[in-house]
User: Fold Ig-like domain-containing protein from Sinanodonta woodiana.
Amino acid sequence: MFFHHYFRQDGIAPNFTQKPVIQQVDGGKKLLVECQLTADPEPSITWFRDGTQITAGGKIQMRAELKSPKNYLIVLEITDVSPQDAGSYKVTAKNALGESNATIGLNFDAGDANKPKGSKPLFTQKPVIRQVEDKIIFECILTADPVPTITWMQGNKVITGGPKYKMTDVADKTSHTITLEISNVGASDGGEYKAIAKNSLGESTATITLNLEGKKPK
Assistant:
């Protein structure tokens, strides 16, 4: 029994020898998630998407192909691909000697599965200037994901909060309506203003000129 048990352990725990790759076939209607591993004895393969185990059937097919002794090609096949198939995919290979995992992200942003999700800030409309009594209000609309940080500037000076300035950011999903309200407007408040929106994917700037000639903004 001792020697029988000893020789049973002579083999290879699963080891992924290549990172998972994604291939598009049939004009992009089908995706193949492929990875290579070595293992002996033959491993059991389990796939997960966003932490939930995937079962074969319907649009999902799985296979493990023995390419050479102890070397396997592991394939997850997805037909009729849609944005709902995006997510984090993990494959687990397990045999009597151990187990190993490999992961890959799938999204549909410019066809790059490893590109960060989201969008850099983008101003979608021209800034609006409104005058309410002795106040001037600048309003800009932009989209951004993740949530951007907003910086307002007059010329080269960063505007900070206080009794004269009030800044707001009203968000609806990835759309943001940002405002700068200036109280007690005087001649020194004229000039060029900038709204700078920045997140981890980039930044964008909207420029507004406040002309106080004739006491009406233009």
Q: What stands out?
A: Residues 1-8, 110-115 have pLDDT under 50 and may be disordered. The chain has one helix and 17 strands. The two ends are 93 Å apart (CA to CA). The longest helix spans residues 2-8.
